[in-house]
Specification:
about 190 residues, alpha+beta, four-stranded antiparallel sheet, 3 helices, about 20% helix, binds zinc ion
C-alpha cells in the first residue's frame, strides 16, 4: 500500500492573493484543531494532524486516523493525480468530451498533444488555451474538467497525506475561507 494524498485546489486564487488566502485557511485549520500550527520537516506533510483532525473527515471514516500532515502549496502549480492519466477532458463551453484514451486503453497521442503543449505554456507563462475539438472555442487550460479530477491548474493547494475522505462540512469550511472560490479535490498516490 502506497502513500496517498488529497489536495483541495483553489481554481480562482491569483498568484498575488494565494499567500494571504493560504495563511487564512491555515489559521482556520489550526484554530479548529485539524492540523498543528508548528511546521515540521516530516516527509509527508509539515503540519501534522491536530487533536481534532476528525472535524475534517466524514463521521464513518473517523476510525482511520491520519498518519501524516498537510503541505500548503502557493505559486503556479500543475496539480495532478500522480499515477495514471486522465481518459478524457471536458470542454466547459459545449460539454463535449475530448477522448485521450481509446476504449481499449490505448493513449491517443494526437489528442494529448494540444493539452501537453498548453500545459508547458501555462506553467511557463500562467496562461494557455486549448482549442476544443468539438466547438472550436479557444478554452483556457484551467477551465477544462478531467476524468477523476485528475488535473487542476492553480496557485493555491492544500495537500493532505494519508487522510481519510473529507466531509462536506470540511470542504465548505475551506471554501468559505477562500471567499467562495471554486475548488476541486485532486487525489492520488505515489
Ligand atoms: Zn467545446
Amino acid at each position: 500500500m502506497g502513500d496517498h494524498f488529497r489536495t483541495v485546489v483553489d481554481l480562482d486564487a491569483t498568484a498575488t492573493e494565494a499567500p494571504r488566502l493560504a495563511a487564512r485557511v491555515l489559521d482556520l485549520l489550526v484554530h479548529e484543531g485539524i492540523v498543528r500550527a508548528e511546521r515540521t520537516d516530516a516527509p509527508f506533510g509539515n503540519h501534522l494532524p491536530g487533536p481534532h483532525w476528525d472535524r475534517a473527515v466524514s463521521p464513518e471514516d473517523t476510525r482511520w486516523e491520519p498518519t501524516d500532515g498537510l503541505v500548503v502549496h502557493t505559486g503556479r502549480t500543475v496539480f495532478h493525480g500522480g499515477q495514471g492519466e486522465p481518459e478524457w477532458a471536458r470542454c466547459p463551453r459545449c460539454a463535449a468530451t475530448a477522448r485521450l484514451y481509446t476504449d481499449d486503453y490505448d493513449r491517443i497521442d494526437t489528442a494529448w498533444e494540444p493539452f501537453g503543449t498548453a500545459m508547458d505554456l501555462w506553467y511557463a507563462t500562467g496562461a494557455a488555451d486549448v482549442p476544443c475539438p468539438a466547438c472550436a472555442a479557444a478554452v483556457p487550460l484551467p477551465d477544462w474538467t478531467w476524468s477523476y479530477d485528475y488535473f487542476a491548474f492553480g496557485h493555491l493547494g492544500f495537500e493532505f497525506w494519508n487522510w481519510p475522505e473529507f466531509s462536506t462540512r470540511f470542504r465548505s469550511l475551506i471554501t468559505g475561507a477562500l471567499d467562495g472560490h471554486r475548488t476541486v479535490l485532486v487525489r492520488g498516490k505515489l
